[in-house]
Amino acid sequence: MTIQKPIVKRYKKNPILTKEDVPYPVATVHNAGIVKHDGRYIMLFRSHRLNGRSIIGRADSDDGFSFTVHPEPFLTPAKDNIFAEYEEFGIEDLRICPVEDDYLLTYSAYSRHGVRIALARTGDFKKVERIALITQADLRNVVIFPAKFGGRYVRLDRPHSEISPWSIWISYSPDLVHWGDSRVIMKPVPYHWDEMKIGPGAPPFKTDKGWLHIYHGVFKTMAGAVYRLGAALHDLDDPAKINGVSDQWILQPEAPWEVSGYVPNVVFTCGAVPEDDGTVKIYWGGADTVMCAGTAVIDDLVQLCLIDSRPPL
Ligand code: BMA
Fold it and tell me: Is the CB of residue 258 below 6 angstroms from any atom belonging to ligand 1?
């Protein structure tokens, strides 16, 4: 089988969304979660406000490339109860996880206490209900699998550590609020493109060979960190088991708005939409400044994981 080159084909009219498209004052548009809901693409993107703290906006599209931003932000830091204390410094990098006819929204909640993950739920993208703060500090990048396993919800997460390079862990929950049985399942590889740290990216989606997870990996250079995207294939019945991780990255910063911007040399994903024609639309923030899109053939990503594999641990 021949794999399409490049593996991820950039949309010709990237970037697909910039701060100029947003009708309220923001400095950036990036790291968006995205799903197809009732035949339309809904994007929940992060923006830095002009005070440096982040909020989440909403943009809609019929074709997955051309988006219109709603006049008001979708989600801003909570004003009351426990969420207000932990979202004080802003909310970032939201993922939309389709689970049981609903959408679970996971996002980083920043405060003077560090960064932790909050979980909210929506069915229609109009009413949003905050459910719980589901990690302590410091944890980021939580994605929840679309299916339950042994009656439990399953998530990938990424604790911070001074001892080991930041790695991808798995945790389980009976009720979305209490999480445990955590263990590490995938680590960076020394002197490899993802050697500095890795983290969950887009919520995993089902293929006939396994759950495909597009993650980010970071390499430290003399000029700063380079963020790239990679692919891992989790076992269909047991997502803690990784059946293959692509040895090569699938996307690296190359376009002018990926190599330069607020944080140079960053492609960072929070969402991908698998399509019925066997392709997947992948969305990423370029240099923490703009939103970009591209497409890949799902089978190509699966083959890379299975044939050109590096060990997960
Ligand atoms: C990570 C997160 C992301 C960001 C990336 C590159 O640590 O903060 O939100 O896109 O760094 O700056």
Answer: no
pLDDT tens digits for range 207-254: 999 999 999 999 999 999 999 999 999 999 999 999 999 999 999 999
- In Å, what is the CA distance from 37 to each residue of 60, 103, 132, 277, 296? 10, 10, 24, 17, 21
Q: Compute, in degrees rounded to 10, the torsion defined by CA atoms 253, 74, 174, 233.
A: -20
Whether 288 lines ligand 1, by a CB cut-off of 6 Å, is yes
Ligand 1: residue of 108, 160, 266 to mutate (most ligand atoms within 8 A of CB) is 266
Q: What domains are there in the chain, each with its CATH number? A: 10-310 (2.115.10.20)
Region 253-278: what's the mean pLDDT?
Answer: 98
Question: Is 207 in contact with 305 (CB distance < 8 Å)?
Answer: no
pTM of the model: 0.98
Element (H, E) at 298: helix 298-307
How far is it, in rounded angstroms, from Cα 263 to Cα 248? 23
What whole-number distance in Å separates Cα of residue 14 and Cα of residue 16? 5
For residue 228, how far is its CA from the centre of ligand 1 (angstroms)? 11
